[in-house]
Amino acid sequence: MRALLGVLACSLTVLSAYGLYTSSDDVVELNPSNFNREVIQSDSLWLVEFYAPWCGHCKSLAPEWKKAATALKGIVKVGAVDADQHNSLGGQYGVRGFPTIKIFGGNKHKPEDYQGGRTNQAIVDAALNALRSLVKDRLGGKTGGSDYSRQSGGGAGNKKDVVELTDDNFDRTVLESDDVWLVEFFAPWCGHCKNLEPEWTAAATEVKEQTKGKVRLAAEDATVHQGLASRFGIRGFPTIKVFRKGEEPEDYQGGRTRSDIVARALELYSDNIPAPELQEVLNEGILKKTCEDYQLCIIAVLPHILDTGASGRNSYLEVMKTMAEKHKKKMWGWLWTEAGAQMELEASLGIGGFGYPAMAAINSRKMKFALLKGSFSETGIHEFLRELSVGRGSTATVGGGALPKINTVQAWDGKDGELPMEDDIDLSDVDLDDLEKDEL
C-alpha cells in the first residue's frame, strides 16, 4: 500500500530531508542549477530518474539504479532528480508519478520515456539499445548531442528573444502583462554587463521555449532610459529584477550563467501557473480526460442543491478552489458532482451512504482510490492529501477495476434548487360521502 501511494500523489510537504543517492554513488545528482549544463548541453546519452525520497517504489529501485550506473560508467551517464524537492524540473518534463525514468538521447529537449523493467540488467540493456540507436543516427547524418547549440547558434541564443525595453513601452510590455518578466538594467560600458550578455541571450531563447512565452527576459539600457532606472532604484550594473503583475518587483538573487538564469525562470513559471479548473462531471469525457491526463484526480460529491441551496454549494466549491490553488504545482485534476447525479461513480468509490459532502482521490493508472474521512474543510482536505502523500492513508480498488459509466447531465446553473411541480389531482369524480363511510 505504501508503494502504491507513492505513485498516487506528489508530496505536499517534503517530510523526508534525505535523498536516495550520495556522492559516493555513480549516480549523478541533478537539480535546476546543473541540469542544463550536465544533461541538455551534453553530447552523452543520459538516463535520468525523477524520484521522491518517501516513494516506496523509488527506494526499491535505488540499489538497482546504482548498480546500473556503475556498470554504465564511462559509457552512458546515469542521473537522478529529487523531483519532490525540485518540482520545477519534474513539471518541465511532465513527471506525474514516481519513479519516472527518461532517456535523453539525440534530441535532449524531447526525452523518451523508459518503459522497461526495474532491474539493473533491464536498465543496462535499455541504455545500450538507446546508445546503439544514437550511434546509428549519427552514422546516418543526424548530429545528435546537444541540439540546443544547433538551435541557438552554439549557445548564443537568439537576440530577438531578449525584449528591448524603453521608458515608453515598459509599463505596457511588462507591468500590464500577465507573464513573468526578468529585466536586466545595463550600461553599455559595463564589463559585467558585457559578460552577462551572451548568457542572458541564450537563457532568453531557452526560457521562451520551455515556458511557452509565459516567462520572458528583457533588457533596458539604463544610461539612456534614466527615468526607469530612477523609478526602480537602479544603482549598479547589471541589476536584474523580477516583475510579476500586481506585485512589487523583487531583486534577482541567482547566478549569472545561462543554467542559473533558466533554473530561476522555471521556478517562477512553476509559481505562476494557473490553478487547475474545477469542473463539474457533466459527461464521461470530462471524467476520463481529467483522471487520465493528471497524476491524481480529486472528486467531490456534494449534497443535492435542495439540501444546501446555492450559498451552501458555493461554500463547498470555494474550499475546493482554494485547495486546488494551494496545490496547483502537483498536477492534480479537480472535479465535483451532485449527490445522486452519478450513482455508478458513487458506487464504484463506496460513497453511497458515506454521507455528503464526500471526496475521493483516484489514481486512474492503478485504479485505486482513497476516501476523505475527515471534515470537508481546508484543514480536513489538506490532512487527507498529506496522509496520502506519505503512505498513511488506506486505499481500495475502484469498483469494477475501471472508471464507471457516467451520465450526461446539465451543468448547474448557479441557482437555488426548486422542488419538482406535482400534477394537480382531479377529485371531481370522487364521492366524498363514500370516503367518509370507510372504516379507518
From TrEMBL:
Q: According to its UniProt record, where is this protein mainly located?
A: endoplasmic reticulum
Cellular component, GO annotation: endoplasmic reticulum; endoplasmic reticulum lumen
- Family membership noted in the UniProt record: Belongs to the protein disulfide isomerase family.
Query: Per the database entry, which stretches of residues form a coiled coil?
Result: none
**Taxonomic lineage from the root:** Eukaryota, Metazoa, Chordata, Craniata, Vertebrata
Can you say what this protein is called? Answer: Protein disulfide-isomerase A6
| GO MF term (any one) | protein disulfide isomerase activity
EC assignment: 5.3.4.1
Question: Any signal peptide, and if so, which residues?
Answer: 1-19
Disulfide bond keyword on record: yes
What role does this protein play?
May function as a chaperone that inhibits aggregation of misfolded proteins. Negatively regulates the unfolded protein response (UPR) through binding to UPR sensors such as ERN1, which in turn inactivates ERN1 signaling. May also regulate the UPR via the EIF2AK3 UPR sensor. Plays a role in platelet aggregation and activation by agonists such as convulxin, collagen and thrombin.
**Where's the Thioredoxin domain?**
3-133, 154-271
Where does the record place it?
Endoplasmic reticulum lumen
Q: Where is the composition biased (Acidic residues)?
A: 419-440
Instruction: Give the matching PROSITE patterns.
Output: THIOREDOXIN_1, THIOREDOXIN_2
Entry keywords, A to Z: Disulfide bond, Endoplasmic reticulum, Isomerase, Redox-active center, Repeat, Signal
Example GO biological process term? response to endoplasmic reticulum stress
Do you know which Pfam families this protein is assigned to?
A: Thioredox_PDIA6_C (PF24541), Thioredoxin (PF00085)
